[in-house]
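Anyone able to model this chain together with NDP?
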Amino acid sequence: MAKILDGKAVSQRVKNALKDETEKFVEKYGIKPGLAVVIVGDDPASRVYVNSKKKACAEIGYYSEEHALPESTTEGELLSLVEKLNGDEKIHGILVQLPLPKHINEEKIINAINPKKDVDAFHPVNVGKIMIGNFDFLPCTPAGVMELINEAGIDLTGKNCVVVGRSNIVGKPQAMLLLHKNATVTICHSKTKNIKEITKNADVLVAAVGRAQMFDGDYIKDGAVVIDVGMNRLENKKLVGDVDFESAAKKASCITPVPGGVGPMTIAMLMKNTLTAAKNAVLGK
Ligand code: NDP
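re: yes, here you go
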């Protein structure tokens, strides 16, 4: 049976370390790292994520602000808020919870965030820095995956890594981070032919498609490391990943559960980015 990569435990260790660092930061500079979380509309999943982020801020000792705006908020109003937060000295990190309502152009909003406060690392400046490998922030979910792999003591050098999914927030940056660790990376997507033939050769499989339990044991190479980013709600309300845990765990050497795998790591990495942003701000970087 595969070893479980316990995201809950690892994220708690990351948060504990951040708490200690934050105490020292506050003592030295007399200010708290500050995160502003902006949510537009009342999507229940977004609400859950925002609450978890606020809770993590309180646990670590950050200052946090929530800006909950109605669904009817215009693009102009949201841009004005982002501008205000860009200029607010108490705020080191700005997170606009996605998805936004259809009438708001997400790209426009992301581009308006000061890249130094872009703790999601979605701004094109930060995306470009990740490509080059000289970055301030890493996008939270792929960074969380890397932390889990690192904690498990897995050396990626020369490993055949397959990322399924090519979104800007997960798949693409994930592939880049694996490449930076000297893996040989294949990216698959909805137009890829014979996905199973590709994943069956993966030493490390990262599933980020949003298709409940798509990857069963037949997709997995014996001894593979299986990372499940997916979060899918079944009709019976159960939360499952993109991987069929039961059958995949019989093949894998290590596997992340859902829930309790990548999800908690994402929030821990957001907290890490917020402290980085605060440190950079006080150092004038
Ligand atoms: P997107 O919908 O933006 O992207 C999904 C990707 O999967 C696309 O590249 C798409 O291909 C590909 N895809 C879809 N269906 C298939 C298929 N049948 N075979 C192969 N590829 C396919 O999703 P995200 O990247 O935002 O999220 C992916 C999953 O991760 C979701 O379940 C989401 O909930 C979860 N998630 C979890 C987080 C966490 O903290 N644990 C954080 C963020 C996301 P194409 O580009 O061709 O359309």
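The chain has two domains: 31-116, 140-263.
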